[in-house]
Write a structure and sequence with these properties.
Length: 340
């Protein structure tokens, strides 16, 4: 290959302290998490972290400990639309403008004492990749695209925040799993059978072009050329060029026509929204930018918005929401923006 009615845990203040009692390996594990908080990790850094993680069981256990501590802050995400959640975010991000690694390590230790018993599935506010994403074979960061050639005549164009794992690669067949994100996939006529696992389903292609997006337990498949076989939980169907289908917790959906321009817009570096609720617009924009835009006004979230913007100019959507709907924006460190 190339290329909830339980007491809420306390939200610790980030303090600038020097946890001298940490052994070197545990300190290094916390340093990795600190780099996530600082937002300065790219694909090469993730590769380096994976090499570090695999050095020994001690490294693995230390990283798992650091990850569990920060995941224990997961309830922030569930509270992000309420004043209490915003207050916690503001408290965590108050100073300095960019959290230092020593501060994050101090926060880790405080969090461990306050809420280590609570373990969340996702990192708080998705501010850094989940454990599953980090263990992927290929991954893109926020706003990053990457082209990958698996074998001859099988290529992938990975969109922002996309993680794939290679499950099988041989002259007879190739199989990958799309853990999260979105990929445009092309298989040539002479390529071996190609299968993608996503959200508990399976897509098989031969000499086809298609776009596949996976958001947790939901997947959407758009066939642009050729034919695809789609299977999930005993249901199966065949898709031809110009057809798309989605599946998730409710089973397989109905086959619809593909809006090719809309499906492939991200490959041209463009995001388009046609009468889309503001909360959905923000959710999509958050995929492309570091940090998080948090909308705390439900009424604005239900309003419809038309917009077209470049993926490297996503913050322009904040200006539009402020001007069109009268929202108020507050900038916080780490790329966090509160819209009220």
């Amino acid at each position: 290959m190339t290329t909830q009615n339980e007491p809420k845990p306390m939200i610790p203040a980030i303090v600038d302290e020097n946890p001298a009692d940490l052994d070197p390996i545990r300190r290094e594990a916390y340093e990795w998490i600190a780099r996530f908080m600082a937002g300065d990790m790219m694909s090469a850094d993730v590769d380096a972290m994976k090499m570090w993680y695999r050095q020994s069981p001690e490294h693995k256990n230390a990283y798992a400990e650091a990850r569990r501590v920060w995941q224990s802050l997961g309830p922030i995400a569930n509270e992000s639309r309420h004043d209490s959640g915003a207050a916690a975010i503001i408290q965590m991000a108050r100073k300095p403008a960019v959290p230092s690694r020593r501060m994050v390590i101090g926060g880790l230790m405080a969090a461990a004492a306050a809420s280590a018993a609570y373990v969340a599935v996702r990192p708080p506010l998705d501010l850094w990749p989940s454990y599953t994403e980090l263990m992927a074979d290929v991954r893109t960061g926020a706003g990053e695209r990457r082209q990958v050639v698996l074998v001859e005549n099988v290529s992938l164009d990975l969109n922002t925040r996309t993680s794939i794992a290679l499950r099988q690669q041989s002259s007879a067949a190739t199989q990958i799993e799309l853990l999260t994100g979105e990929a445009a996939i092309s298989t040539g006529v002479s390529a071996p059978p190609f299968t993608v696992i996503a959200a508990g389903g399976r897509v098989t292609a031969a000499d086809a072009e298609f776009n596949l997006r996976c958001d947790g337990v939901q997947a959407s498949i758009s066939c642009l050329r050729g034919r695809l076989s789609v299977e999930r939980n005993g249901q199966s169907m065949s898709l031809g060029g110009g057809q798309q289908v989605s599946y998730g917790g409710g089973g397989m959906g109905a086959v619809d026509a593909v809006d090719r321009d809309s499906v492939t817009a991200w490959q041209r570096g463009v995001l388009t929204f046609d009468a889309v609720p503001v909360d959905r617009v923000i959710a999509e924009v958050n995929r492309y930018r570091p940090g998080r835009i948090i909308l705390m006004n439900g009424e604005i979230g239900r309003r419809l918005l038309n917009a077209r913007l470049k993926v490297d100019e996503t913050d322009k959507i904040i200006v539009q929401i402020v001007h069109i709907f009268g929202a108020k924006a507050r900038q916080l460190p780490g790329g966090i923006v509160l819209l009220t």
